[in-house]
Amino acid sequence: MKGMTLIVRTITDFVVAFIVVFGAYIVLYGHLTPGGGFAGGVIIACAFILLMLAQGKEVAFSRFGEKTAHVLDSTGALVFLAIGGVGLTAGFFFKNVFGRGEPFRLLSSGMILPANIAIAFKVVGSLYLVFTALAIFRRRSFRSMIEDELT
To answer: How far apart are CA 48 and CA 139, in angstroms?
Structure first.
């Protein structure tokens, strides 16, 4: 089995779910507390990166594949653009059409919560894909790439 020792793999299996839930909490409560789509997306992406480092890429790809990451990345960008475009119907880009927020009401943040979720999708997909690309292409050094270009 690829990956690290049995202890690291077991602890990783246990911890990954908690990291994903914590990241989702940061995304969903980002309009009320410090955090938001970017911070929560980074936390969720790090959970899957940890899984890849501890278990190997086969296990990580079986739980969160490249195709899923591409779909999340593209969907997040399109939804974020659509949220901004909805504001155009009211006069200008990203105008809040959902009404003003009310103190102590979770779902009264207007367009911030949907935008946070879209950003989280984009960040999770992008960061995971960047790490995957770096992990796959790590064998080629920068020097060998330059030498190949020069010859």
So the answer is: 21
**For the whole model, what pTM was predicted?**
0.80
Closest listed residue to residue 44, CA positions, set 73, 11, 79: 73
- Give, in order, the Cα–Cα distances in Å from 13 to each of 46, 65, 118, 135, 149: 14, 17, 27, 21, 42
Domain with 30 in it: 6-150
Give pLDDT tens digits for 36-90: 899 999 999 999 999 988 988 888 888 888 899 999 999 999 999 888 888 777 7
In a domain, 1, yes or no: no
How many structural domains are present in the chain?
1
